[in-house]
Amino acid sequence: MRSTENLYQLFFEESNDALLAVSLKDHRVLGLNRTLTELFGFHSEELRDESVQILCSHSSPKETPETLERLFSLEIINQPGFYTDVAVRTKDGLLRFMTIKVKHWKTKEYGDLALVVMTDETERQWLLRDMMAKHQTFEAAHQELEVLHKSLKNTQNQVLQSSKLAALGELASGISHELGQPLAAVRGF
């Protein structure tokens, strides 16, 4: 049994996802792994047995871009589920985006607790936002090119009409000249 506990502890500590165990009674941090401390920029001693609010307080709505759907908060911890594009701020103020999974358990030793699994999606989210911004730029450039293309077509049509009128004028001038020559000879006789 002891080796199984050690194995689970190893899985918990070495997971690439940030793991957080929180008491639902008083929202104290009961357990966390190395990835969570690295992600948020805290030492495990700063977080263990502290209120989980210490992690939520860095996600102030005033500091967060309006495009964000949700911030990391007690509401997320209190409601089991799957949350995407959750914004968190690290201890040093950097904005990170997470996919968060919350599961609740009843235990004899700890009472009701929440296990929070956070997957860092920051790079993907910044790439996605960058790609969307570039798409909007390309869309605007495309619309500008469409306007310029229509203008060019109109100008080409005007030039074509002008050249047709010029050709008609030359034809009329040539006919007039050709008719004028014999008429001038007839007039002369």
Q: Which tags fit this structure?
A:
six-stranded mixed beta sheet; alpha+beta; 189 residues
Describe this structure in words.
Strands 2-1-6-5-4-3 form a six-stranded mixed beta sheet. The N and C termini lie far apart (134 Å). The protein is an alpha+beta fold. 16% of the residues are buried. The chain is rod-shaped, with a radius of gyration of 37 Å. 53% of the residues lie in helices and 23% in strands. The chain has helices at 2-14, 34-40, 44-47, 53-56, 74-78, 122-188; strands at 18-23, 29-32, 70-71, 81-89, 95-107, 111-120.
- Which sequence of strands runs across the widest sheet? 2-1-6-5-4-3
The span between the termini is: 134 Å
Q: In percent terms, what proportion of residues is strand?
A: 15-25%
Order of helices and strands: HEEHHHEHEEEH
Q: Write down the overall geometry.
A: rod-shaped
Can you summarize this structure?
This protein has helices spanning 2-14, 34-40, 44-47, 53-56, 74-78, 122-188; strands at residues 18-23, 29-32, 70-71, 81-89, 95-107, 111-120. It is an alpha+beta fold and 189 residues long. The longest helix has 67 residues, at 122-188.
What's the topology here?
Layout (H helix, E strand, L loop, with lengths): L1 H13 L3 E6 L5 E4 L1 H7 L3 H4 L5 H4 L13 E2 L2 H5 L2 E9 L5 E13 L3 E10 L1 H67 L1
Parallel strand pairs: 3-4
Antiparallel strand pairs: 1-2, 1-6, 4-5, 5-6
